[in-house]
Design a protein that fits this description.
- This protein has 946 residues and is mainly α.
- 53% of the residues lie in helices and 2% in strands.
- Among the domains are: 580-611, no CATH class; 629-658 and 679-878 and 912-944, Fumarate Reductase Cytochrome B subunit.
- It has a 3-stranded antiparallel sheet. It has a two-stranded antiparallel sheet with strand order 1-2.
- Strand 1 (55-58) and strand 2 (61-64) form a beta hairpin.
- Helix 39 packs antiparallel against helix 41.
């Protein structure tokens, strides 16, 4: 039945048509908008991710963030039009670019919820939830932006690729064994020569079982889990998915379906057929090894083909019987022989292909630098036979094997040692690699101590995946060095990964250091070896240049420069592998830890002692004003003293030359006569002590001050090393305190004997304290120098002698007190702040330089090197001078003694000539040492001063 269509119905149709049109236009608009959004999304992301150098550090690995849009467009998701934010949903609506560095992981379960649920309950999914770093995620197996359908040969989950894909984690030596107990070994290798692997790789049978057929694709579980496809109760069903006639095939073993009903009564499949080694071995008639040996056992057998012409084809059966391939028949390696042929081996088409059994290893080798060069026809590249041998291949645990751990350096050295084919072609900086390795701590442990657990070439470079160090895939690439070293040094690597050197950011164009930067690649030495400690400070200086320079200005650095490596260096204070910024509570230099760090060397260290400024430099006025102005004052004192007395010496020279001949005549005329005794025995003895102690302090002290110069380092070694020099320096200090104390006691006794007060004794006419008359004589001396007056009539002590005398008081006080602070810093910083040690070091060093320079130049001139006294005035050693010299040199004192009638009590007989010669010899030795040290100091100040 139908009804008439009136106007209302027609109107309804018209409205329906309009509604359909509006809906279609809206859908088209949304589609266009979505397409535009997708394009916008990709374009926006590509603004950054089109950069091939864009990377980030993830779990210690450098991960590329480059996005190849062309690769993505060819992928499953690209072809479906899925945009970036469809997967990276946390970026939806983000307008501020660049986005946050750390993003939530992509949740594939948004679309693949069923698979995601299976995965969550699997071994892999549980591993991820427990934070196992190597647990595979979706993108580990399927890829990230390059996901292809499983039937695509380029897909990672294509049947032909699944064993290799799974083998990335489950092959021998991978980290999975650190996190899980794996009962099977060499899984991928065994699979490759199993009947399943042969069916897949050799015959191309896509229905041959691969990993995911037995273990499932996403629900991989432990074989002990009842839900696992490979649990003992489930194996029969799993195997029957391919082998459907199991009951009939195994009729002699099982009855009916007992296999499935009561599996405990009969063996499971894998109990007869090893899980990954399932294979069938059958050799045709005429192809047994004995047939091959009928010819190849002959020692004079040589090749007849162009490829083998003249080469011995003899096979030593005894050698073969002892090899790793003892159970491997000839035709398993030399495949393709035709049994019906008179000589089956004539029909072998190709060279031995080791991948028949060792597919995984060969694939790895092909991707290595050796494999790539070999594929290009390079004849210098080693193949399997070069490293493993031919018919004499032995297991690597056999000491006679070429690949035994003790033989590996020599094996690699055939090419890589000096003169080898690889060494001749090598253009890098690592020379004599094998020779250096053998002398390294690893090499010596292997060769000298027989430690087969020590690292060899293959532990660092891998066995078959060797790549150039510049290749990111290389095990010795900068991004992977710590992982490689961490395989043995796990605890050290764990510390290093928490340090600022691993987690920080490189500055000023420097790279963050890796293991080989500090330890080198092939010359690795024990960290307690002297050479290593010397080298490591220089290594730190390649990045921390200014800090290292300031270190060598400190006591620690100066001692270190002299070769005393037991002193504190960089790693002693900052740590070795767990270095942190000082403001990090975990740092060895943090407020809570620094006292303990100092206490490792300084027993009794405390909070104030730790206030010592370890890298302070007087050059930084802003940061260290007290230290800077202390240095400025000492420099001004040194320059001022040398300027005044240097000018005084230059003005004296002409007058001294004028008196040269007259002085010599006076000494000649007075030969054999009585002499005036100017100094008593105590004075002379104390002065000899002064000479001995001063020379000791000067020589040992200047080696430390100029420790960065070769002459100082040579002098320190001549003294027996820094420790011996330090002991001599302290002995000199003790002798200084002794003679100073003895002199003070002598002053006390003489003052008491004279009956004078201290004021009269010190400030009187014959006292050592400068007085008004000294000022007058100074002015008179300058006039005499300039020819504007007569020579002043000097008394017992001249103004320059009084200056020298009180300079000793000043020097002992300044050098002595600062030296005691440096000698006993823990004690003095109980009262003084720690930075006062820095101040004491500057005072001690610069005041010592002033004293040494003044004594060996100005003082030597005043007493010995004036032309009228040259080459030496022996009066300080003999205590005697001729009467005529005394009259001319000290006229006022002479007149006073004559006036008081006391001259005769000072007149004595000359000392024996032999004794005088001995004293002069001692004096000349002292003068020579002093002058030599002056020359070295001048050279240091002019050419090498820091």
């Amino acid at each position: 039945m139908s009804f008439p269509r009136g106007p209302r119905h027609q109107d309804r149709r018209r409205r329906g048509g309009l509604l359909w049109l509006a809906t279609a236009m809206a859908s088209l608009g949304l589609a266009l908008t979505a397409a535009d959004a997708l394009a916008q999304d990709a374009d926006t992301c590509q603004m950054c991710h089109d950069d091939r150098s864009l990377t980030k550090n993830e779990r210690g690995q450098v991960k590329s963030l480059y996005f190849d849009l062309g690769v993505y467009n060819r992928s499953v998701h690209g072809r479906e039009g899925i945009g970036c934010v469809d997967c990276h949903q946390s970026l939806a609506g983000v307008e501020d670019w660049p986005h946050a560095e750390e993003l939530p992981d992509v949740d594939c379960g948004t679309c693949h919820d069923g698979v995601a649920a299976q995965y969550a309950g699997s071994l892999h999914g549980v591993g991820v939830s427990q934070g196992v770093p190597i647990a595979p995620r979706c993108w580990t197996c399927h890829g990230a932006h390059d996901i292809m359908p499983p039937n695509d040969p380029a897909s990672k989950v294509n049947r032909f690729n699944i064993p290799v894909m799974c083998g990335r984690c489950h092959r021998e030596g991978e980290a999975i064994r650190e996190y899980a107990e794996v009962s099977q070994d060499s899984i991928l290798a065994h699979y490759s020569f199993s009947i399943h692997g042969e069916g897949l790789y050799k015959r191309g049978l896509t229905n041959s079982a691969v990993c995911s057929d037995c273990h499932t694709a996403h629900n991989v579980r432990n074989h002990k889990d009842p839900k696992s496809s490979i649990h003992r109760d489930n194996i029969a069903g799993m195997c029957q998915s391919c082998h459907g006639m199991i009951e009939k095939v195994h009729a002699k073993v099982i009855e009916g379906q007992l296999w499935e009903k009561e599996p405990s009564k009969v063996p499971a499949c894998i109990e007869c057929h090893e899980p990954h080694e399932i294979r069938r071995v059958y050799y045709g008639e005429g192809m047994a090894d004995s047939e091959c040996l009928k010819c190849h056992a002959q020692k004079d057998l040589v090749g007849a083909t162009p490829a083998n012409a003249g080469r011995s084809m003899h096979v030593d059966h005894a050698m073969l019987a002892g090899s790793a391939h003892v159970k491997t028949a000839c035709i398993q390696c030399h495949t393709g022989a035709t049994p019906s042929h008179a000589r089956p081996c004539d029909t072998v088409p190709n060279r031995v292909d080791c991948s028949i059994c060792h597919a995984e290893v060969v694939e790895t080798y092909k991707a290595s630098i050796h494999g790539k060069l070999g594929a290009q026809g390079d004849k210098d590249v080693p193949d399997c036979l070069v490293c493993h041998g031919r018919h004499d291949i032995l297991k690597r645990t056999n000491p006679a094997s070429m690949t035994h751990v003790r033989n590996i350096p020599d094996m690699c050295g055939k090419c890589h040692d000096e003169g080898g084919v690889a060494d001749k072609r090598y253009e890098g900086t690592e020379k004599s690699m094998v020779a250096n390795y053998k002398e390294s701590t690893h090499g010596r442990a292997l060769d000298k101590s027989g430690l087969v657990v020590t690292a060899t070439c293959v532990d660092c470079h891998t066995t078959h995946a060797i790549m150039p160090s510049a290749d990111p895939a290389s095990s010795v690439h900068r991004s992977k060095v710590d992982v490689t070293c961490g395989k043995c040094h796990e605890g050290v690597d764990r510390e290093f990964r928490q340090s600022i050197h691993f987690t920080g950011e490189a500055k000023d164009g420097h790279r963050l250091p890796m293991c080989n930067d500090c330890h080198t690649s092939h010359q690795i030495a024990r960290t307690d070896a002297e050479g290593f400690r010397l080298r490591i400070v220089a290594q730190c200086g390649t990045c921390h240049e200014h800090v290292t320079e300031s270190y060598f200005e400190t006591y620690h650095g100066k001692v270190f420069a002299l070769g005393y490596t037991e002193t504190a260096s960089c790693s002693d204070c900052h740590g070795q592998h767990s270095i942190q910024k000082p403001d990090n509570p975990a740092s060895t230099l943090s407020r809570d830890n620094i006292v303990g760090t100092c206490a490792k060397c300084h027993e009794g260290a405390h909070r104030q002692f730790a206030g010592y400024l370890t890298h302070a430099t007087h050059h930084d006025k802003t940061k260290y004003p007290v230290i800077h102005y202390t240095w400025l004052f000492m420099t001004a004192l040194l320059v001022g003293t040398f300027s005044v007395f240097g000018l005084h010496t230059l003005l004296w020279l002409p007058r001294s030359f004028q008196a040269l001949r007259h002085s010599r005549q006076l000494r000649k005329q007075a030969a054999g006569q009585k002499q005036f005794r100017r100094f008593n025995r105590l004075n002379r003895t104390l002065h000899i002590m002064v000479i001995v102690s001063f020379l000791t302090l000067a020589v040992t002290g200047m080696t430390l001050k100029f420790s960065y110069l070769p002459w100082a380092q040579t002098l320190a070694r001549a003294l027996g090393g820094f420790q011996s020099a330090g002991t001599l320096h302290r002995m000199g200090a003790i002798l200084t305190f002794f003679y100073f104390t003895r002199h003070i006691y002598d002053l006390y006794c003489r003052r008491k004997q004279s009956g004078k007060s201290w004021r009269e004794f010190v400030f009187g006419p014959d006292g050592m304290f400068p007085n008004q008359r000294d000022g007058q004589e100074f002015i008179g001396t300058l006039k005499w120098f300039l020819g504007r007056g007569a020579r002043p009539e000097y008394g017992r002590w001249t103004y320059w002698e009084k200056f020298d005398y009180f300079a000793v008081f000043w020097g002992v006080a300044m050098i002595g007190f600062s030296g005691l602070i440096l000698w006993f810093p823990e004690l003095f910083t109980r009262v003084l702040p720690g930075w006062f040690i820095n101040v004491a070091q500057i005072i001690h060093s610069d005041e010592a330089l002033l004293a040494t320079g003044f004594i060996f130049t100005i003082h030597f001139f005043n007493t010995h090197f004036r032309p009228d006294r040259f080459p030496m005035d022996p009066v300080i050693f003999t205590g005697r001078m001729t009467l005529e010299e005394f009259k001319e040199d000290r006229p006022r004192e002479y007149e006073q003694l004559v006036r008081e009638g006391r001259l005769e009590e000072h007149m004595v007989e000359p000392l024996p000539e032999g004794f005088v010669k001995a004293l002069k010899t001692f004096g000349f030795v002292a003068l020579t040492i002093g002058l030599g040290l002056v020359v070295l100091i001048i050279w240091a100040v002019v050419f090498g001063y820091r």
